[in-house]
Amino acid sequence: MTYSFRIAATACCLLLTAAAAQAQVVAGLGRSTSKPVADGIIVKVDNQIVLRSELEGIYAQQQMQAEGKPLPPDLRCQILQSLTLNRLLLAKAETDSVVVNEGQVTNELNRRMNYFIQQIGSEKKLEEYYNKPLRQLKEELRGQVHDQLVQQKMEEEISGKVTVTPREVRQFFSRIPKDSIPYYSTEVEVGQIVKLAKPDDKAEQATVAKLNELRARIQAGESFEKLAKEFSEDPGSAKEGGYLGFFKRRELVPEYEAAALRMEPGGLSPVVKSQFGYHLIQLIEKKGDSFSSRHILLKPATGNTNISAAATELTKLRTRILADSISFAKAAKDLSDDKNTGANGGLLANRRDGGSRLPLDQLDPAIFFTIDTMKVGSITPPMPYRTDDGKDAVRILWLKSNTPPHQANLKDDYQKIATAALNEKKNKALDAWFLKNRGTVYLEVDPEFSGCSVLSVGK
Length: 459
Description:
CATH architecture of the largest domain: Orthogonal Bundle
Number of helices: 16
Protein name: Peptidylprolyl isomerase
Mean pLDDT: 85
Strand order of the largest sheet: 9-4-11-10
Radius of gyration: 25 Å
Keywords: Isomerase, Rotamase, Signal
Organism: Hymenobacter koreensis
Largest sheet: 4 strands, antiparallel
Pfam families: Rotamase
Signal peptide: 1-23
Low-confidence stretches: 1-36
Order of helices and strands: HEEHHHHHHEEHHHEHEEEHHHEHEEEHE
């Protein structure tokens, strides 16, 4: 069983909607020229199905990534096996009552959509690519993200307690043929400390006053949707008249949810403050433990004075770090406004393996062109920065290490090799689970794929 491939196949399905039937896939966010294929069910595993468009979409993705190199002759069978095994995990999750919180789904969906928006350049470009508004894309992808999180939870229950010892890591590396040891390009470790530009009292008061003015206009009869389109600073909902759709309890920030649920449908909230800014909320409908609403979001202006204050604070902190009165890692953990990187001593994480070493050619251009001429150990002066959620900030960058291109070895790449060894051991645990459970489900495979051993391991 090529389990590691199955994980990759699942991930690349994220943005494959009905357009996958035409092999329009996200791979550098380019388009495939493959001809459309007729869609249909090719595998059933209990109540779970695999569509032909899923198989062909992933196959097209692999073709694009291969860049003209020959693909394995049984690649479609490998992909089909991977998809089938994913469906087996879902089928067993349903039987075993394994569920995920809808709040987790929403957070993961937003995170992934933000990643793809960054890759393609803007929300507008992503909407143009799929010819759909972002809200519709999210609604269509929610089911896929939900299923992936359920699969991950099942895998965690099956293999989550598996560990590897240093001896097992060395043994794993020694089994790799010499001509198959991977070659790594230049990798760097980069840390950051972020300080948000905080709005002053006058800016906050002006924002609240503006929202109260809009509230009065709505109460006087003007359209909430029209004013949201004109004034709201939430790009995801403004064009929809402020409409956010249905959310369950604990899926939105507490301040917003509390204000929305205090109202009856049609009600209009007072001005509500959250981490995102100030909201004016209108409740549309309550349905069980879910509710739908629309809002107008305004963010207080920070202004150059506030940005300068944040930069001054970082300049002083940088001086302390350079004088060795505090380490960069401790300063990031205790003082950075970016809690995600702060918890990791400020180091940016590699999305692929969770480690701190990043391929130089995959860095964000803003970081690449900054550190390209830096010496290891140096720290930049404060630089203007805009966070993923659009907040004005400044940050300092630290080049912790710069590893030149090299063939993998235990000294420089222990963490990567340990991760690969752990994955291999987890795969064996999953194989054992699969062998135990494959006879407990109903399976039907389209005759066209009867030659594929979709329910076998060790392939």
